[in-house]
Amino acid sequence: MMKQTIAAALALCAASAAWAAEGTPAAADAQLVKQGEYLSRAGDCIACHTAKDGKPFAGGLGLDSPLGVIYSTNITPDKETGIGEYSLEDFDRAVRHGVSKDGHTLYPAMPYPSYARMSPDDVKALYAYFMQGVQPVRQENKDTDIVWPLSMRWPLAVWRWMFAPDVATAPVTVPDGADKQALLRGQYLVEGLGHCGTCHTPRGFALQEKALTDADGSDYLSGGVVEGWLAKNLRGDPVDGLGAWSKEDIVAFLKSGRNGHSAAFGGMAQVVSDSTQHLSDEDLNAIAAYLKSLPPARKDAAAALTYDPAVAQALRTGKDQGDGAMTFLNNCAACHRSTGKGYEQTFPQLALSSTVNSADPTSLIHIVLKGAQMPGTGAAPTRYAMPGFDWRLTDKEVADVVTFVRASWGNKGAAVTASDVAKVRKDVGAAAAPAR
Does residue 173 sit within a domain? Predict the structure, then answer.
């Protein structure tokens, strides 16, 4: 990938005469456009800027925020409703600075605090792609569903001044040595284009990411909740992070949406489908190398869990007939097995799962209520799915089975209450609990 980046930069220099004075490409170099397309995949631009059943990059997707719904904008090169009149400078200001062509500050639903780390060369390649490689679509942008006075834009400029970092001013350079190159490339992709912290880092009092890089502190990538899903801890914690995952496990997950530990669900399934499965093996390995370099979020992180077969034996012999155990046997064991080990690459294991053992049980409750589906990828095209049980299980029954899972086979997760389930049921729009 680094060779491709260098080649793109050289191609840019060679084609500099094709750029008009205002920064609009007259006939962008094909290699530069191709590089921009790859970078748009790495940045997952299509995920937010494409509405369900809509045209690619034409915007209109509703993004929930604590203030109300924000609709993504049309970023096709249509001259009237898109970015067709944007110069390179206009484009750069929007992507890395968070300022639109007309001068207003963008909502940080656009992850410009992360994109600020993009190199100028990569911005130019992205611009070439969006101007020359994307089909123009005439589609008017939607106003937000945020009520006044929260809809006023000027506070966003204050937010940007307080929390947005300085933008990169030079091309990305790496020192000699394959290991250092991989780490720095992975850091660039995770902190910048991949904007992983946007979901996987907790938010502060003003909804800002508590850390934008590992240098800002161990909150970075320590986990966050997005649209009713837990974006898991990506640091080295052995119980709820990536401490038990190898680099190969991370690469397999990003490439196929599944590995021996887990499967992609919720928003991460879309990330794998639209973005990470399309990245080069070199870049995926660089991302994995960087993530594995991150220490645990907590200095007193618990030791790695070990499998305990006692619950499996009790289920097989009928010795455990508690409410949680019986609900598990009647609804879950066919796929996840009484051992909790599931079927590799098909039905994820529950035993020792970092998702199961996370302090926040939101994702586990969400999956039980509404189900989930793995992404279909080039490496693993079958979209295995789990049905939702919101229509079938009461809040108490969901709490019982989730508590059972979080305390079985060596898992050490805390108990879940019926009120916990009721809150998630409401937040994610699940069906009303059945009457008993």
Answer: no
Same domain, 110 and 209: no
Q: Give, in degrees to the nearest 5, the angle at Cα 222 between 216 and 225.
A: 120
Do 190 and 154 fall into the same domain? no
Instruction: Give the C-alpha separation, 7 to 212, whole Å.
Output: 29
Q: Is residue 146 located within the same domain as residue 34? A: yes
**Over the stretch 293-330, which tens digit does the pLDDT of each residue have?**
999 998 887 788 999 999 999 999 998 889 999 999 99
pTM: 0.89
Residues 257 and 357 in one domain: no
| Region of residue 430 (left: phi > 0; alpha: psi -120 to 50; beta: else) | beta
Give whole-number Cα distances, 428 to 63, 227, 365, 386, in Å. 14, 8, 10, 16
**Measured between alpha carbons, how far is 157 from 69 in angstroms, rounded to an integer?**
19
Closest CA relative to residue 414, chosen from 370, 362, 347: 362
Q: How far is the C-alpha of 213 from the C-alpha of 294, rounded, in Å? A: 11
Q: 175 in helix, strand or coil?
A: coil
Which tens digit of pLDDT belongs to each residue from 253-309? 999 999 999 999 999 999 999 999 999 999 999 999 999 999 999 888 778 899 999
Domain that holds residue 323: 310-427
Residue 131 lies in a domain: yes
In a domain, 168, yes or no: no
